Amino acid sequence: MKCIWLFLAFTFAGLIFQGHAQRSTFHYSMSVEGSITSLQSIPFWMQANRFGSVPVAGPSVSIVGSLRKDYRTDRKRLVDWGLSFEGRGNAGKTAEFLLIEGYAKARLSIFEAKVGRAKSQIGLVDSTLSSGSIALSGNALGIPKVDLAIPEFYSIPILGRRLAIKGNFVHGWLGKTDIRFGNAPPKLNTRFHMLSAYGRLGKPDSPLKLYAGINHMVLWGDEQQIFGDDFTIASKKAYFYVLTGKKVVGSENISKIGNQLGSIDFGFDYDFPTVKLAVYRQHFYDKGAIRYLANLRDGLNGVSLTNKQPVTQKLQWRKLLLEVLFTKNQAGEIWSPWTPSGPEHYYNHSVYADGYSYRGRGIGTPFITPRHMAREGQASAPQDYFINNRVFLTHLGVEACYQRWTFTGKVSYSRNYGTYWTSDVEYFWFNNQRVPHDPGENVFREVGQFSAYLEGKKKLSNGYRVRYSTAFDVGNLLNNAWGGNVCVTKIFQ
Questions:
Q1: Domain 25-221+258-492 class?
Q2: pLDDT of residue 392
Q3: Signal sequence span per UniProt (predicted)?
Q4: For residue 27, with 0-12 CB atoms within 10 Å meaning exposed, 13-18 middle and 19 or more buried, which class applies?
Q5: What pLDDT, on a 0 to 100 scale, did the predictor assign at position 238?
Q6: What does the pLDDT read at residue 405?
Q7: pLDDT tens digits, one per residue of 172-225
């Protein structure tokens, strides 16, 4: 029933805006998608990094509608505004409606304010082929938020346009989340903070550009109810602790306010005459091991090549990508440099039971695996929401054109080692001491996982587009799965 109402609502909206589409910045589209997957699981690449817009497992039909107003591009305006709405209705073994996007935005010169749920990615990666950013990959539904940003690189005039900056400041709401601490209520309101800042060295027309940036994320809120009398920081001061990551002094139970984590990114790109080369590195930071250079091995490394030549051949590659993700160290190995806080335990947290996730999906890289997505029988610690965060991944992506079709392929192979709570290390550092570690029989044995994806899409006449995709998983981390879908879209603009 929800799918029917969604279809009627967007059809009515389309009739309203279709007459304005050719002479305004309004765009409207409607898609009908048929999918079939394994009854138990949706293949990894049919659900990962899709902003939560995925079908239900098994045979299903989906209707996706979108309505968008963009900024004007025909002439530059000092002030402009826009909005976006995208909804998805799934009908299969279950029926559901998902609000994928719903926001309003306004621009003043280089500054932008956005309010609502939006598709968001943060980090130096390729937006279409990447395995996913460490900080914000687009794997989950967008968190409702207020976002103040310089969204595009702005070249500072007084420095000869050699230095450019961009970034954003976000305050968001995750709703009530599971809390795990003492006598605290089991669910409390949780807020989301994000600060990103990026710099670019090189003129806009320079072939070589250097990049560096930092992303800081915090899940926090209702600390007084969580920690009781142990929490004595006033609310305004507490927010300062959230923004700066400052440690709390004088409490054995509180090190920092909230679940604080993020990434440090750097890279470069170079424009050759016919191709563009991009190289990047994202480094994890969590509990503070980076200060002691104890987890330098961990991070996401990527190289991409983009073909700058126009499509003139029947078969032509457009983009190639190679990424390696390594998260196995976490400052927890016997030979790792000493840290007072022990292993990082990426994305898991001792207070926020669901760790760095939103509505059942990881906010960062999807290759760190939550319990409910893993194959049954994997060893796990009861305190871990993500039961596999020690990963060694090799990921390949390719985009090519054949005649009028555009093809996208992804191939990923990972070795997976669970978490440090389910590892067989003899001890690790914690509170300035070597803490013996004996998981007994509850050891996560190394397992491999292979996932592949192929998509083809083509523009037809009269605003119609067709897309098909197929994917499968083979391995011992996830359930073996297969699936595919066909989608027809009508675009009004």
A1: mainly beta
A2: 98
A3: 1-21
A4: middle
A5: 86
A6: 94
A7: 999 999 999 888 899 999 999 999 999 999 999 999 999 999 999 999 988 889
d(CA 67, CA 156): 35
Q: Which two structure tokens, joined as six digits, stand for 288?
A: 């503070």
Is residue 451 within 8 A of residue 471, CB to CB? The reply is yes
Single-letter code of the amino acid located at 369: T
Q: How far apart are CA 102 and CA 145, in angstroms?
A: 11
pTM of the predicted structure, to 2 decimals:
0.92
Question: Nearest-CA neighbor of 47 among 353, 449, 373?
Answer: 373
Reported confidence tier of residue 430, pLDDT bands at 50, 70, 90: low
Least confident of 97-111, 350-364, 438-452: 438-452
pLDDT digits (tens, 9 = 90+) for 219-273: 998 888 988 888 888 878 888 989 988 888 666 667 788 899 999 999 999 999 9
Helix (H) or strand (E) holding 243: helix 235-244
Domain ranges of the chain: 25-221+258-492
Asked if residue 349 lies in contact with residue 453, where contact means CB atoms within 8 angstroms, the answer is: no
SS3 324: strand
Secondary structure element (H or E) that encloses residue 194, with its range: strand 187-201
Of the two residues 102 and 433, the one the predictor is more confident about is 102
- Closest to 312 measured CA to CA, from 399, 402, 397: 402
Distance in angstroms (rounded) separating the CA atoms of residues 274 and 7: 44
Give the C-alpha separation, 101 to 65, whole Å.
10
Distance CA(280)–CA(302), nearest Å, equals 5
Task: Record the tokens describing residue 426, joined without a space.
Answer: 């003899």
C-alpha torsion angle, residues 229, 245, 236, 142 (rounded to 10) = -100
pLDDT at 333: 79
Residues 6+ apart with CB under 8 A from 341: 255, 287, 288, 289, 429, 430, 431
- Alpha carbon 266 to its chain's center: 18
**Could you give the 3-state DSSP secondary structure of residue 183?**
coil
Instruction: Specify the pLDDT at position 5.
Output: 44
Residues 6+ apart with CB under 8 A from 88: 53, 62, 63, 64, 97, 98, 100
HSE-CB of 328 using CA atoms within 13 angstroms: 16
